[in-house]
Amino acid sequence: MVSPINRIRAHVSDELAALTEVAKTLTAPAELPELLDAVLKTIIRVLEQADIGAIMLWDQSEGAFLAAAAAGYNLEILQESRLHAGESITGKVFDEGRARLFNSAEEVALAMENLRPFNRRIVARALGSEALPQASVAAPIIAGEQKFGVLVLETLDSHKQFPPETLAFVQTLADLIALAIDRARSEARAKAAREARQADRMRAEVMAALSHELRMPLATIKGYATALLMDEVQWSDEKRREFLRQIEEACNDMEGMIQDILDTTLIEVNQLRLEYQPLRLVHIAREIASEVRRRSDRHRPVVDFPSTFPIIEADPRWIRQVFRNIVDNAIKYSPNGGLIVIRGEARPADVVISVSDQGVGIPPENLITLFEKYFRVRATSTLHVPGTGLGLPIARAIIEAHGGRIWVKSKVGEGTTVYFTLPRQRPGNGKEQDGQV
Q1: Are 296 and 357 in contact (CB under 8 A)?
Q2: How many domains is the chain partitioned into structurally?
């Protein structure tokens, strides 16, 4: 026969082993939802009396407790529930701020009597049964003055009961969970603060860069316009045309910068709306090639699409912008001119478009950051490239919103090729889709 002292020692040893296992689970490198799910499953495994359980966290914006993790319940269904303050076992334990033991079906039913019918139906669906738990132990999840929610553990077996000493053990488990939640939320706040500071710094940098970039075409426009207005100088027709051409080019540069900023603003607030239509990409490629011929007599655009190239479904306005942004980069980074080849290749599920130039190329270390906002390749110290550094990030956002991908291959001194894919059929149903960027 086991003596009371040995039984207590065995119980304490079991609790220490369980606490160690739970603590190890909570220190695993995982996001908070996965962490809470793993620790709850660990608790159910090490606590003999517990068959099912849930971690219910208070959501201030909802004004309700939401299921963050569940064992024995269908979490997806349980997350439909919205427990109000003071409602059921969760609400009572949270309000009281102390662990509670409900060690009979009657006590459980009494604690749950104010559970609203809507939530009662959800709990039954999540459990797969309308039967109430036979016993329950619950502890508030608290770290310092911060109350996060409640840990609820239950048994479905009428022959099982939670011994009184379980209260302190479950409260310790809830305290460990609270520390993990507090740490995760502190890290999230710190990360958000870092990102906000970085965003502020980037905004300041881009405003300075834009001020500088916009000043250059403005100076060009003002300079040539002033020259044309000089009464004391009689300019030849050729000179006047040259001045006007320079003014037009500077206006185009400014228009492009402003359009990039507007497009980026739409993307940042998830307002990139796609209106799908049947689209012949070869027509857009030829249209962009014609623009290149009008803009530059040093670049020779070539469009190479097979005659069997399929019609795809995409948004013509945004896809035209992708072509324009990529080709614009090809022109800027090939100052000595050369070929700009726009190719199309059809595959069973998608199409691949590539734009190749014979320009300065991109160093390997810059390829990773090429699609980051405001990043601009500085290939040589003597090459000044006007722009915002937004063209390729915008192109990536548009392509990814369509369900495609974009990448670059380049060799310094030999040129660059930008590739992107588009699905042959539009993803999802409906006539209009919001691009999630």
Answers
A1: no
A2: 2
Torsion sign (Cα): 94, 95, 99, 105:
negative
Q: How far apart are CA 83 and CA 74, in angstroms?
A: 16
Tell me, yes or no, whether 207 lies in a domain.
no
Query: What's the CA gap between 139 and 126, in Å, rounded?
Result: 21
Residue 32 binned pLDDT confidence (cut-offs 50, 70, 90): confident
| Ramachandran angles phi, psi of 40, nearest 5° | -65, -40
Which of 136, 431, 164, 142 shows the shortest CA–CA distance to 278?
Answer: 431
Question: Taking the CB of residue 407, how many other CB atoms lie within 10 A of it?
Answer: 13
What CATH number is attached to the domain comprising 401? 3.30.565.10
For residue range 261-294, list pLDDT tens digits in order.
666 666 665 667 788 999 999 999 999 999 889 8
Q: Which of 142, 172, 187 is the last residue of a domain?
A: 187
pLDDT the model gives residue 346: 95
DSSP string, 190-213: HHHHHHHHHHHHHHHHHHHHHHHH
The partner residues of 419 in beta bridges, in order of sequence, read 354, 407
Q: What percent of the chain has pLDDT over 90?
A: 41
User: In a 3-state reduction of DSSP, which class is residue 422?
Assistant: strand
pTM listed for this prediction: 0.52
Which CATH number does the domain housing residue 10 bear? 3.30.450.40
- The DSSP line for 134-198 is SEEEEEEEEETTEEEEEEEEEE--TT----TTHHHHHHHHHHHHHHHHHHHHHHHHHHHHHHHHH
Check whether residue 50 and residue 150 sit in a common domain. Answer: yes
CB-based contact 115:79 (threshold 8 Å) = no
Whether 173 and 27 share a structural domain = yes
Task: State whether 428 and 283 are in the same domain.
Answer: yes
Residue 437 has pLDDT above 60, yes or no: no
Q: Are residues 64 and 167 in the same domain?
A: yes
Residue located via tokens 């060009």: 220
Task: Specify whether the CB–CB gap between 68 and 57 falls below 8 A.
Answer: yes
Predicted pLDDT of residue 388: 57
For residue 428, is it within any domain?
Answer: yes
Residue 142 domain boundaries:
4-187
Q: How far is CA 161 from the centre of its chain?
A: 45
